[in-house]
Input
Amino acid sequence: MKAYRKKKKYLQSEAIVLKVFDFAEADKIFTLLTPDNGIIRVVAKGVRKPKSRMGGHIDVLSKVNAYISLGDNLSNISQVEIINNYPVLKKDLSLISIGFYLLELCEKFSVENDPNNDIYYHLSYSLDILQENSENALIVRWFEITLLMISGFLPELYNCLISGEELDEGDHLFSSVNGGLVNKQYATTTDSYISIDKNSIKALRYLSNNGWPEVQKINFGANTLEKLKIVMRKYIQNITNSQINSEKFLSRVI
Output
């Protein structure tokens, strides 16, 4: 019987580099987020050698055009071309901290070899606007709520989670465990709530319903953005069931 060799599958794709670590003596493993194949983990052979042609062309927080040989467990990257190295972000401590935070969130909410085009393009767009705007805290809050929406985890912001009734305008409670707002009169002792004022509720609703061009025109106020930070941090931790490592440092710079 004639034997047939299994053909390798090759892929050329735009990608954003989410993570990297050293592997073997001269290699590196990169975690890439792609628009049509989700997360792909690739090994770059010999990239740590001084004469490697790829060494200066691929790094964390870079958008590249990647040529990949797909494998069963680990794929190989043979060539990369820089699309955007985000030099503005990498020269500023607060901006690079935000960039790493966005990358980590996208890795948490993405699945290997399972594409979600919206997550990729949301990250790409957000990194672009981060280079051009000074409203860092607002960009992060908008990024978080939009990522939750396109990932299917948008919290309930209009009706009480317990009673199902439409919420009156006013202060309420936010359940990070169940994901949404609760009328104070229906609060239970088995949940840990965050008190949230009406202005912060309005801000959450506005962020979830509008794109950045509209959001950037609104002055939400420092107190409101700080409350949203507390709510989003707790909720995202519950969804991912893990600590967001880059968030600890991010809290010190914005």
